[in-house]
Write a structure and sequence with these properties.
Layout: E1 9-15, H1 20-29, E2 33-35, E3 38-44, E4 49-55, E5 60-65, H2 70-74, E6 79-82, E7 84-85, E8 88-89, H3 94-105, E9 121-124, E10 133-139, E11 143-150, E12 155-162, E13 166-168
Antiparallel strand pairs: 1-5, 1-6, 2-5, 3-4, 7-8, 9-10, 9-13, 10-11, 11-12
Length: 169
């Protein structure tokens, strides 16, 4: 049976703003495996438009480590901390990293999306419902059910909305 200290898992590293690439290069120099998913964005300047590569998860990179290696990663310039739960680094399931890698390598048009869960308080940010605030009752692919309540009446109304016009409130 393998020693638990020698088993490598994926972890998310929180970096200083715009230090993701720098930290990923430093991790590679240490001989550790890192993954910095990037996406293409259109930068609109006054005089031109330019396609740039940007971190898909700004401020974060992924690194495959065993617990013995934590201290050398945390000592790198630009590294803030390893994400975790109650102060203990939390491993990320391999299938989550694999899924992100598949999407990135497919060259499909991918973009960051707010992490929304059922029960979140949200606001509509565009369209005819712009400004409405309510609760997400159901989250399904492409559409969510927004519930707006009038508490004094003990009544609510619901409407299906597209995921791309909802933000956490």
């Amino acid at each position: 049976m393998a020693n638990l200290e020698s088993i490598s898992h994926w972890y998310a590293i929180y970096t200083k703003a715009r230090h993701e690439t720098k930290v990923a290069k430093q991790i590679a120099k240490l001989g550790c495996q890192s993954f910095l998913p990037k996406t293409k964005i259109l930068s609109k300047r006054k005089d031109r438009k330019k396609v740039l590569e940007a971190a898909l998860f700004p401020g974060y990179i992924f690194v495959k480590l065993n617990p013995i290696e934590f201290s050398k990663i945390l000592g790198l310039p630009g590294t803030v901390r390893i994400l975790g739960d109650r102060g203990k680094p939390a491993p990320i399931p391999e299938e989550e990293i694999d899924s992100v890698r598949i999407l990135v390598e497919s060259e499909a048009d991918i973009e960051p999306h707010p992490y929304l869960r059922e029960g979140d308080r949200v606001r509509i940010v565009s369209g005819p419902l712009k400004g409405a605030i309510g609760w997400l009752l159901r989250v399904e692919p492409r559409y969510s059910l927004l519930v707006v309540s009038v508490n004094i009446l003990n009544r609510s109304i619901a409407v299906e909305v597209s995921d791309d016009i909802v933000e956490k409130y």
